[in-house]
Amino acid sequence: MIGVTQEQHPNRCRVFAQWKGIDWPILWDPFNMTGSKVVPRYLLIDEHGVVQSTGARPDDLAAFLTTAYPAVDAKDPPAGSGLELFEATMAKKGSPEAAYYGALSNLLWNTGNGDKAMLALKAYARERPDDAEAQWRLGVAFRMRYDSLERHDGDFQLAIDHWRRGIDLDPRHYIYRRRLQQYGPRLHKPYPFYSWVDEARAALGESAPPLIAPLTRSERAGPRAGSPAAQEAREPDPKNEIESLKKLMDVETAVAWSDRGDGVARAHVVLRPSGRRVLLWDAEAGPVTIWLRLPEGWRTESNLLTYTLTGEDRAEEQVVVDFELHTGKPAAGTIQAYALYYACLDGPGECRYLRHDFEIAVPAPR
Amino acid sequence: MTATAHAGEVKVGELYPELRLPTIDGKETISIRGQRTKKVLLIEFASW
User: Fold this and answer.
1) Does a structural domain hold residue A161?
2) Of B22, B42, B47, which is closest to A12 when you measure between CB atoms?
3) What is the domain count for chain A?
4) Is residue A237 part of a domain?
5) Which of B2, B24, B40 sits opposite A45 (nearest CB)?
6) Is the residue at A249 inside a domain?
7) What is the DSSP string of B1-48?
């Protein structure tokens, strides 16, 4: 028995497998090389590597296991690393496809040629603007880089844009659609994605695999009909009296629109210490709060967002928040925002309550 | 194989394409078709 998962983040599946006691190997296929358009799917492959079923049911298993299938004239798969096999078996050497699969394999096996691989994937997708697979895989690659230390500004938004392009070109592709729903509005989700993760990690205790990428609220959220009732919140610093120190923080934002033309979107905000001046979160002093000033006519559940720091990594922890946005008509706009946070500055060691102003650019839906 | 070739196009009676992927813990790579002499129940799924 072998499993394959197309999830973006393999560690979510690792937690699941450990929690459920799954002891068979599970392969990671973020670029959907298996070409699955639906999950779950059960395939039966005989002792000669021949597919006997692509939609097996439990009743089929007994006959499959007891049947001696005839041998076929086929070469054994070539030996070598996964990387070599990608290049050797997916395309002819020297062809455009060879460079493309080489780039995918570099990212999949994290061989350290990320920038070169991204250039190859971008060029491949640029030459094939109507190739759903190339567009969607480029989105996966952008999100991979966003989750790495090599991230570039705007990577998450580019991931969303290319996932969206892939869905527009292949609207019936369930895997593509689910990826965007993962980060999109609640109205789009048929059921929650990772609502089970906290329970699983609590049950596993210290043996739980690390998540690597923090879970967002949109990944935990279930579906909801209608728009949320706005909660009244008092603006924490309306007169801009809290001290603001520049260059302490980097901010990245991304927005995933509903594709129903209903003016609903999910906005994501990530704050991280910039590293230019060393900022250390002060988790014990209090949470990070973010105030949103929305354009006229836009609504959200609450203008005040709160993130409780774990305190596990004072220098590297990312503040990850996301919220649903109702704009009425789908339109571009800019949300003015600021974060208030407790931090200690390395060097002098002084701890302060600080403010960081930023904007959330909401692009028009495509 | 061309760029559009992948295992999703497999048909009953045909060889499963050669495809080697890493395990979710990144510790090893496995060839699905490479399990020769063994029968394979391949489950494509997601934890969500």
Assistant:
1) no
2) B47
3) 1
4) yes
5) B40
6) yes
7) --TT--GGG--TTSBPPP-EEEBTTSS-EEESTT-TTS-EEEEEE---
Tens-binned pLDDT, residue by residue, of chain A (366 aa): 999 999 999 999 999 999 999 999 999 999 998 888 888 999 999 999 899 999 999 999 999 999 999 988 766 555 544 445 554 555 556 677 778 888 888 898 887 788 899 999 999 999 999 999 999 999 999 999 999 988 999 999 999 999 999 999 998 888 998 898 899 887 777 788 999 999 999 999 999 999 888 899 899 887 775 555 666 788 999 999 988 988 888 999 999 998 888 899 999 999 998 876 678 888 888 899 999 999 999 999 899 999 999 888 888 889 999 999 999 888 899 999 999 998 888 766 788 889 999 999 999 987
Is the minimum CB–CB distance between A91 and chain B shorter than 8 Å? yes
Give the pair of three-digit tokens for residue A136.
């969607």
Which H helix or E strand runs over A52?
A: strand A51-53
Residue with tokens 């990387």: A83
Chain A residues within 8 A of B42 when measuring between CB atoms: 2-4, 42-45
Which residues in chain A are contacts of B27 at CB distance < 8 A? Answer: none
What's the CATH code of the domain at A291? 2.60.40.1230
Whether residue A74 lies within 8 A of chain B, CB to CB, comes out as: yes
Per CB-CB distance under 8 Å, the chain A contacts of B10 are: 43, 51, 54
Asked if A343 and A242 touch (Cβ cutoff 8 Å), the reply is no
Residue A146 resides in a domain? no
All residues of chain A having their beta carbon less than 8 Å from the beta carbon of residue B43 are 1-4, 40-42
Q: From A37, which residue of chain B is nearest by alpha-carbon distance?
A: B8
Q: Which whole-number Å values give the CA distances from A140 to A319, B17, B24, in the listed order?
A: 22, 23, 16
A50 contacts chain B (CB < 8 A): yes
Provide the domain limits for residue A336. 226-362
> Out of B12, B23, B48, whose CB is closest to A27?
B23
What single-letter amino acid sits at A310? T
Given CB atoms, is A100 within the 8 Å cutoff of chain B?
yes
State the number of CA atoms in the 13 A half-sphere of B21 facing the CB.
Answer: 25
A32 contacts B6? CB cut-off 8 A: yes
